[in-house]
Design a protein that fits this description.
Elements lengths: L1 H13 L1 H26 L6 E5 L4 H7 L4 E5 L2 H10 L4 E3 L5 E2 L5 H18 L26 H11 L3 H10 L6 H8 L4 H30 L8 H24 L5 H18 L5 H10 L1 H6 L1 H15 L5 H23 L8
Parallel strand pairs: 1-2, 1-3
Antiparallel strand pairs: 3-4
Helix pairs in contact: 1-9, 2-6, 2-9, 6-11, 6-14, 7-9, 7-10, 7-11, 9-10, 10-11, 10-14, 10-15, 14-15
Length: about 350
């Protein structure tokens, strides 16, 4: 078996298509995602431009707080500034807020106005409230929904062993290729040859997945895989599942090899798109509208668990996710074997 393993590994490594699609293409996608989502993934400092009456209590209080650019303005000047969008809002002496649009910065000012209203209702003077202090406990969080496209990319390339599965299904059917015909007529231990092929497909694709993870971590500086052991286990199961799906695609029909490869490409891209590779909002829509599809989409399973394990540090759904991936793997291998076992041919 060692000879078969060495031969098939060298043969795969010589294939330029393997080098591009399994190694280079995921790196290009990761780089493009990094360029597209870099600003969204990096927290930007808050800067709210607020107008206040000259000499009011808000002028002194807000100037001492971080994130506010205070502009002393009278009411008429403030209305002009709001129309020109040179300020985000205006707080008068009583804490009444004037805005001309809605947004995050206006929500911040609304929170300030709401606090002022509560203090007035309690008869507490506004100068007693220090806006530069935090009266709540703040805990750090690494939650970032824009990491989901990267996790979806990892999930998609984990299933890239599907191409190896399609190829090995062709190698097992004598009417599909000359190599398969020779295998069926020569005294060769087909079990060793095929097992070597499976191991080769998993090792090479898993190795290319490790290259992608290393590139994201040290090449782009993204700390996406903080919990490495569960991450690698998910990726490995994705490789096994991809191989089973590829065997099923290759064995279940009589289309050309190019068409089968197109089916594999379309299927992986479709599953990745539904899992949020293009936008986290897509995953949210699928989760709300078609929860069963999201629950059994292999790429979505890997994406969700990578996010929960690494960003949210939650393990409560990790093992049920492993069970679903394992069930899907067993299902596709079983279906593939139904199409492959004990085939006979009238002529070759």
């Amino acid at each position: 078996m060692g000879i078969h393993l060495k031969y098939q590994m060298l043969q795969s490594l010589r294939e330029k298509s393997f080098t591009f699609w399994n190694v280079i293409y995921p790196l290009i996608m990761g780089l493009l995602f990094f360029i597209a989502f870099q600003r969204l993934m990096t927290p930007q400092p808050l800067s709210v431009r607020v107008g206040v009456p000259p000499g009011s209590v808000f002028e002194e209080q807000l100037q001492s707080a971080d994130g506010f650019q205070v502009q002393p303005l009278h009411l008429e000047a403030a209305k002009t500034a709001l129309s020109a969008k040179t300020i985000d809002g205006y707080l008068d002496e009583t804490g009444t807020l004037l805005v001309n649009q809605s947004g995050f910065k206006q929500s911040v000012l609304y929170a300030v106005a709401a606090q002022a209203e509560q203090m007035n209702a309690l008869g507490i003077p506004l100068y007693a409230y220090d806006f530069s202090k935090s009266y709540t406990q703040i805990q750090a969080s690494t939650q970032n929904p824009w990491a989901i496209p990267f996790y979806s990319l990892i999930g998609m390339v984990a299933l890239y062993s599907v191409y190896a599965g399609v190829e090995y299904a062709r190698a097992m059917q004598a009417n599909q290729s000359t190599v398969a015909l020779r295998m069926n007529v020569v005294p060769l231990k087909k079990r060793s040859f095929l097992f070597g092929g499976f191991v080769t497909g998993i090792l090479l694709n898993f190795g290319s997945n490790l290259i992608l993870l290393a590139f994201l971590r040290w090449g782009l500086g993204l700390h996406l895989t903080q919990n490495l052991a569960p991450t690698l286990l998910l990726v490995l199961l994705g490789n096994l599942l991809g191989l089973g799906v590829g065997l099923f695609i290759g064995a279940s029909n009589h289309f050309s090899q190019n068409f089968k490869n197109m089916m594999a490409v379309g299927l992986t891209l479709f599953m990745a798109s539904l899992s949020g590779m293009m936008s986290p909002e897509v995953k949210t829509v699928v989760q709300n509208q078609w929860p069963l599809l999201d629950r059994w989409n292999p790429v979505a399973i890997i994406t969700t668990e990578l996010y929960r394990v690494n960003d949210l540090h939650l393990m409560n759904s990790f093992y049920p996710a492993l069970v679903r991936l394992s069930l899907l793997t067993i299902l596709f291998f079983a279906l593939a074997l139904l199409f492959l076992r004990r085939k006979t041919y009238e002529s070759l």
